[in-house]
Structures are given as C-alpha cells and as structure tokens.
Amino acid sequence: MPVSTPGWFENIVRCGFVGVPLFYVLSGFVLAYTYANTAKREDFTPRSFLSARFARIYPAYALSLLLSVPMLLAAFGDKPTGSDLVRRLIAHTTVLLLVQSWFVRTAYLWNYPAWSLSTEVGFYAAFPFLHRPLIRLSRWSLLCVGAGLWFGGISVSALYMILNPDRYTHFPTLAFMQERSLQTHSWMAILVFNPIFRLPEFLLGFIAGRLFALRAPAAKSLPSAVVWSAVAAIMVLIIISPRLPYLWITTSLLAPLWALLMYGLASGASLLSRILSHSVAVLLGECSYSIYILQAPVFWIASRIAASRGIGSSSLLVVFEMILITAVSIASLFLVERPARRWLRAAIGPSGVKSRPRVNSLTH
Question: What pLDDT is attached to residue 302?
C-alpha cells in the first residue's frame, strides 16, 4: 500500500485552489509588460503570440502527461470496449488539445492540476484580440475597467450563492467544499473551470502590468508598507478562508491584492522583492511551472517508491516528495523545456516580439 501523506500536508494541498488566481494574475501582469509596445506593430499577430505560448508551455505539459500514464492506467481499472472506449478516447483528446476545462466533465482527466493550464490557454486565445483595445486605455480608464471586472467576478459568484442551482443544503464555504469533491457536472464547476468566468483574474493582472509599464521612468516605487500590507491582507484572508464562500476565495476575491503585490514586487524597492531577485529564488521561479504541472504524477510515483522502500513515516514521504519534485522540475527546465522551446520557436516561427528587460524575477 502507498504511504499516505500527513493531514497537515493534505490541508495545504486542498488549499491549492487559493493559489490559482495568483497564477492567472501573474500571467496577465507578465504578458502586459512583455507586450507593452506592440499596439502598432504588424509583427504581433495571433499566430506569432500563440506560437510563442505553445513553445513555452507544451513541452513540460507533454512530459506531465507522459509521467501520468501509469496513474491514468491505474485509474482505468477495467478495459473499456465499444462506445465506452470511444467516449474515453474523445475525452482524453481534449486533454491533449488543452481544452479540457471547457468541458467540466473532462477537467480532471489524466493530470488533474492541468485544468488550470487549460483555462490559461483560453486566456491566451483571447489575448491578441483584447490586448490592443486595453493597451490604448488611459490609466484612469484601466482602473475603472479593473474595478468593474473585479465587481463582475464577485457578483457572478454571489448570484450563484443566492440562486443555489446545485441545491446545496449547507452554505458552500471553503471548509464545507473541502470535505467534498467538486462535482464536475455542477454549476459551481463551470464557474471554477471555465475560462470565461476566470477571465477577470487574468485581466486584472494585465491591467496591473499595463499600469506598471505606463509609469514614468523616474516614478517612485510603491512604498514597502504597501507591499507588506498586501501580503498581510492576503495572509489574513487565507487564514479565515475556511469560513469564506468557496467561489470567492478560489476565484476573484484575492485578485486585486495579488495584482497590487505584483506591481509592488516589480518595482523592486521592498525587501521581499530583493529576496525574490536572489539567484536561487529566480531558479525556483523558473521551475515553478514545472513544479505545478508535474506535481500529481511525481507525488504519485513518490508514494509508490516510498512504499516499495518501506518508508513508513508520512513526514519522510513529504520530504522525499519535495526533494523529488524540485529535482525533476529543475531537470525538466534544462533538459526538456529550454531545448524544446528553442526547437519549437525555430520550427514554428519567431515570437513576433522582442524580449523586454526583466522586472526582477517576475518576467521569467
């Protein structure tokens, strides 16, 4: 039998949804900064942008699917035949095409954390068409659009809680939902997985990145007190998150605070920003995508290795998993992602935009 991880570690894993909005906000911020000066450039096209994104994300994603095959086969149990086999093949094709989050029944298939990457790909598909209208807005207009997006995201979740279309008998707080698996046929799953309903978080990050790009060269950085206040507010909300509505804490609620934190860290004035600029932090930042997308198969493999080696301590298993995922992710970065990215960019075509200088460790 595989060794089980300790309860405290399982609690951290179950709170992973809270970090997904950070992923979306950070992605929007980085893209806004990277593509800040492309409004009038003819070489910025949907094809060039999507080719660059594909070269960035798909190599590690393909590796995660390959490593997940044993986990996938173990989950099958029986040997499907006939129409059931056809349905499974079609369902798993959505995973290969990175569109599984559009169909909530397929969101968790194969490598379950990858649903959030599928949602991110939906943002990428919209980015070339939303980018130019947004990039022409003034600072004040950007702030108004951002406020409207945040209010809209919160309002959709509030409307769900009022109407209760899934007929929950208990108010769906984070603690309540953590005791249950999110049903992939529910209305709540649509709001959690579907790119349309998660777009405000990405766009809030884009707006923060655009405001950062528009600042005057001699503009003062955000005071460290603002950055640490954002950190403190995020920590307080995470601590009380079990009592908060599940949809709020896992979608739009924290997005403005994440956006403010990204802006402050990019300014480079705070102690936290300097810590994140250290070479070790930069390397881990570059590996963070691999750590996320490879976690499920690596942890699955680690638990079986631990069981075969007679590791009976759940705490030792956590240490082993952390070491293994870090090592595998670093190896993936240097042996898979970077070589494959160079090859794909050469094969598919140029990115269509010259790289801008890094903003600390945020724009990797």
Answer: 86
